[in-house]
Amino acid sequence: MNDRLNLAALPEVRLRPLPPEALAALQQRFGAQCSAAAAVREQHGRDESAYTHIPPPQAVVFAESTADVVDALRIAAQWRVPVIPFGVGSSLEGQLLAVHGGISLDVSRMNQIVAVHPEDMTATVQPGVTRLQLNEAVRHMGLFFPIDPGANATLGGMASTRASGTNAVRYGTMRENVLALQVVTASGAVMRTGTRAKKSSAGYDLTRLFVGSEGTLGVMTEITVRLVPLPEAVSAAVCSFSSVEAAVRTTIAIIQMGIPIARCELLDEHTVCAVNAHSKLSLPEAPMLLMEFHGSPTAVREQAEAVQAIANEHGGHAFEWATSPEERTRLWTARHHAYFAGVQSRPGCRAITTDACVPISRLADNILAAVADAEAAGLPYFMVGHVGDGNFHMGYLIDPDDAAERERAERLNRALVERALASGGTCTGEHGIGLHKRDFLRAELGDEAIACMRAIKAALDPHNILNPGKIFS
Amino acid sequence: MNDRLNLAALPEVRLRPLPPEALAALQQRFGAQCSAAAAVREQHGRDESAYTHIPPPQAVVFAESTADVVDALRIAAQWRVPVIPFGVGSSLEGQLLAVHGGISLDVSRMNQIVAVHPEDMTATVQPGVTRLQLNEAVRHMGLFFPIDPGANATLGGMASTRASGTNAVRYGTMRENVLALQVVTASGAVMRTGTRAKKSSAGYDLTRLFVGSEGTLGVMTEITVRLVPLPEAVSAAVCSFSSVEAAVRTTIAIIQMGIPIARCELLDEHTVCAVNAHSKLSLPEAPMLLMEFHGSPTAVREQAEAVQAIANEHGGHAFEWATSPEERTRLWTARHHAYFAGVQSRPGCRAITTDACVPISRLADNILAAVADAEAAGLPYFMVGHVGDGNFHMGYLIDPDDAAERERAERLNRALVERALASGGTCTGEHGIGLHKRDFLRAELGDEAIACMRAIKAALDPHNILNPGKIFS
User: A72-86, A422-436, B78-92, B308-322: which range is least confident on average?
Assistant: First the structure.
């Protein structure tokens, strides 16, 4: 990577002026569904990234149908106005920030579940449907949607960042679980990318090209996903360790033995403390694995016994079981609040969050080096990890107005990414590139891959109106 | 679909002349690695499709390294010569036929296993490595590569058609199991598309864009795949049924119950007869499910008992178990020879093979209608299916020189595809589009998706030298 990078440099803002004719056309077409009110714009100009300097979008359009998305894009194309799709605003890397101005296209009102085919275990939803909403709708059919990034994100947002989360170690990510999309293109055409078939060799895999494209290639208006049967038996357990290393080595052994664990989450001591304070729990304040097992009662017992034996070998304390649904929910809710608990542990701070994912054999050295660096830097931090996948997050808690703190955090982030790339890993397991990781993407895949992505972007969005400035600058 | 289609029309051949300077440049660079001998060209101009009218490529280059591929593509780009990557020639839809002339780029000598990381369960191979070769190399590490299309195809060919096969119901397809590629672009640049991390949100999913692109976007020179642990216990069973319908309904129930069956293959009576003759077996000549269970001994027993109960409910005869590795190998080898056994059952014929894949709830009606149509048409056929995935193949056995037979088979194929599309399925589960299914692709995804694919193709291969004429005409 380039050593001359100014690590604390904030993403450049280059606003394109919003032509008054464009705003007039949007207002005429959308009436009360279009707002230029400051409060509405502000609400659509903030995400969970550490960037606070970027002006909000110039207007917000609330789409209620595919036809609305088509018309918004046609007007935007006519006047070359940037369009930034918006779900609930839970992205972490600046994906929804209006660095080139333009409109926020809020799809949260497109929250209909279009169809569920329980006999095929598929659902088709509008992009504003959230994961909890979908799960609520299919639970009585004995099914669930396995992708769980923690936040109650929209399916549109999750598809756009190729999200994953706690269940991915067993069930895969949005990459594996999106079967097909309906997408509106930059010119306002409506396109289908696939079918409900479980597999297909029908031409270029447009579904997976759009999944993870962060709104830069089109706007998703329908998402068809796989559902999975609710497991016959579920049990969750927590196990504390005397060191992060022991917890990570336990994880590595579980994965290398091929145990089909459903969730395997690491929380460091800082995170456990923050979670205890935030969620009024009394978990032992030590590095902890939070695990879940799915299957038949026999299979769950077998898996749990095998994991317990591995944990014992690494000095893990006795498992504490959470077998009732209420106890499990309490634990997983606490885990899902870990990010906010961490951020709240330093009032007024923002988190600069890392997202490296490495081959499992390199997980221990990558995590241990990241922890050692963070300790040496003296910056408050917390660490959580979807460690079964080799994915972990450091949250460096900075004062967003303190350039020196930002610089220290970005230096830590950069060292962490460099180690991950040297280990055969990626700079982002699940959060995406957004504004924050554009340089890392180049370091990871090289100039040729960036050129290829740019060529695709130029072919599908020749006027660069779809979320410009994201993924590459 | 367009009713005016001439179903027996053969793909148009529009040869671009090979410029003598291009051949001279190839010969100078490649010496004995370049051949224009008729026998060599013929061998690279035949696949397993039913097309026999297309002239062979004008020359063959045997690449032995990424540098060879780069130079071949640079010369081809300079003279606008079509380049068709070639592995073992087992594609079924005309993927390797030189409808626009040009050179066959044979990568079968690029058969090195570049790296295996057993602790991460990944392998990186050159494109000419075959699946049996890879499995041979990793078995002693307790690992295997789960994608099994039957033929001993190359990994390059399998990645290019997004292949799957018998294990996909449990382990996914090439879509899920390729982690990263090294690709040489149309201009001769070398590009990486990913890392060895299990998951990633790093920009556009170039890996999955190239997987299944049938050599039209670049030439793969390294393929990084996931391996999986050899199961602790394996058992295989055959179960005969009085009707295809009973076998299919058994399959649907297995899948809907979420039983993690590792293989679930249907053979109709014709196929069982052909297989018995070809492989000297004495399987009961009735519709049959051929199944395999993987897991711990307990898990395998649980799965097998559950499946046996379901089969009984549908009138399945007693399971016959193949528990020894030798017996299992004999059974699966017979299954893998089913295609050739079927073709050999009518001397001199070629098979027109269908490849529809439908949501599991629609499998019975799709298969039964296909069988009824085939019976009514009076054309010899066989049927096999990766039914656990909703994917099945009719093989219509035609005299390739008999236009009327071809027309009848194509009419059956078309009706079958129309039903699959109306059921929310795809025209191709695993064989790809090639020349044969180009019209079906448009019917399946619509004009906008084709336009999007064409735009990507034009952006990445502006002179249309990479396997031109395939996927879209």
Answer: B308-322
A296 inside 8 A of chain B by CB: yes
Task: Tell me the chain A residues in contact with residue B299 when contact means C-beta distances shorter than 8 Å.
Answer: 296, 298-299, 302
Q: What is the mean pLDDT of residues A268-276?
A: 95
**CA dist B199 → A60, A253, A428 (Å):** 33, 19, 9
Q: Pick the closest to residue B299 from A309, A295, A261, A236 (CA basis).
A: A295
Could you tell me whether strands B143-144 and B228-229 are parallel, antiparallel, or unpaired per DSSP bridges?
Answer: antiparallel
ipTM over 0.85: yes
Asked whether the beta carbons of B50 and B88 are under 8 A apart, the reply is no
Residue B359 lies in a domain: no
Q: Quick one: tokens of A452?
A: 């290829």
Q: Is B226 helix (H, G, I), strand (E, B) or coil?
A: strand
Strand order in the sheet with B320-322: B320-322, B233-240, B288-295, B263-267, B381-386, B391-398, B350-353
Q: What is the CATH number of the domain that holds B330?
A: 3.30.70.2190
- B184, B107, B6, B96: which is closest to B431 by C-alpha? B96
- Asked if B455 and A204 count as a contact pair (C-beta separation under 8 A), the reply is no
- For residue A320, give the 3-state DSSP assignment: strand
Q: Which amino acid makes up residue B105?
A: L
Residue B8 identity (one-letter amino acid): A
CATH number at residue A92: 3.30.43.10
- The two beta strands, B178-184 and B190-192, are antiparallel
* DSSP string covering A333-344: HHHHTHHHHHHH
Domain carrying residue A166:
113-229
Kindly identify which residue of chain B lies nearest to residue A422, measuring between CA atoms: B195
- Residue A472 forms contact with B (CB below 8 Å): yes
Chain-centre distance for alpha carbon B10: 21
Interchain proximity B196–A424, CB inside 8 Å: yes
Residue in chain B nearest A421 by alpha carbon = B195
Our CA angle for A321, A322, A325, nearest 5°, is: 155
- Please tell me whether the overall predicted TM-score, pTM, comes out greater than 0.90 for this model: yes
Each residue of B317-361: pLDDT tens digit? Answer: 878 888 788 989 888 988 999 999 999 999 999 999 999 999 999
Q: Which of A359, A426, A456 comes nearest B117 by C-beta?
A: A359
Residue B116 contacts A where some CB pair is shorter than 8 Å: no
The answer to whether the beta carbons of residues A332 and A338 sit under 8 Å apart is no
The number of residues making up chain B comes to 473
Domain presence at residue B24? yes
d(CA A145, CA A154): 13
